[in-house]
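Quick start: read one record
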Amino acid sequence: MSRVLVTGGAGFIGSVVTTALLDAGHEVVVLDALPPDLHPGGWPDDLDARAERLHADVRDLRPEALSRVDAVVHHAAVVGQGVDLQDLPHYVSTNDLGTAVLLAATAEAGVPRLVLASSMVVYGEGRYTCIEHGAVRPLPRAAADLDAGRFEPPCAVCGAALTSATVPEDAALEPRSAYAATKVAQEHLAAAWARVSGGTAVALRYHNVYGPGMPRDTPYAGVAALWRSALAAGRAPRVFEDGGQLRDFVHVCDVARANVLALSAGRPGALTSFNVASGQPRTVLEIARLLADGRGPAPVVTGEYRLGDVRHVLGSAERARDVLGFTARTAPEDGIPAFARAPLRGAPAAAPPAA
């Protein structure tokens, strides 16, 4: 078995990945900066006690911290949509500079394997087909259309309605938010590292991850955490647009299992990417209703929107199944109602969340 460094290992996904790696027989070193807004009490109580701990920022990582390490599982990142463009330096510094420093240290220390936490946001709008023009890539949605309640992206050629389809890993990358741009950059950096060092890199493109231990509502939390926090406060989940956006919600324990499998995947000198999804897409309104049915007030469809959001994005689960040997085990109908009563991290927020 391997000795694995998990960056961001005290976080929501990283901590579950840490336990899964330990259970699989690996030694684990958790590196985390423990930012006060996420970890006001320092190391979280639910972090597996079997793991070694290293309090450090990945941007300050020294090669000696990678002594005897066989693989790095890289989760240290700022996530979510953020607040506004003033967040750009924070995203780029943490996600991209942090990854560059990590890869440089990994190369110097001779670590041969990297697993990178990426995201389905790298695809931008998902895959669509037009009845006349076949597979097309829609233009970014215009504010005027969204203001008028026209949420579906039209064909860029003829303006006709489109049908959503799943996105394979070899699709063109088209980030449409600051966070998405940093995830694409992380993948490119990892690919460059693999080519030059001869190392093996695997990018796991997570879909909408949920489960116990998610952070409470912050500008960087996922929509599942925002809705769950609203229900805990007795408020109805707020659903943007008309609720018809298609997404794939995948349980954090399934994501952790994909990370364990990824340690033996890929090939030297290259980056291999995998969609990590449940393979059971639902509309966001369906997910909000499943969550509310397990806890409290029915969701409210607000008609609001964010220009950085995309309408539908569903990754194909075929490569992960056929190559990685990964199939999600938790269906939304089971995992989402259970999540409605699962514990969250952090103190309750005072302001109402938006989703």
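Residues 100 and 189 are 7 Å apart (CA to CA).
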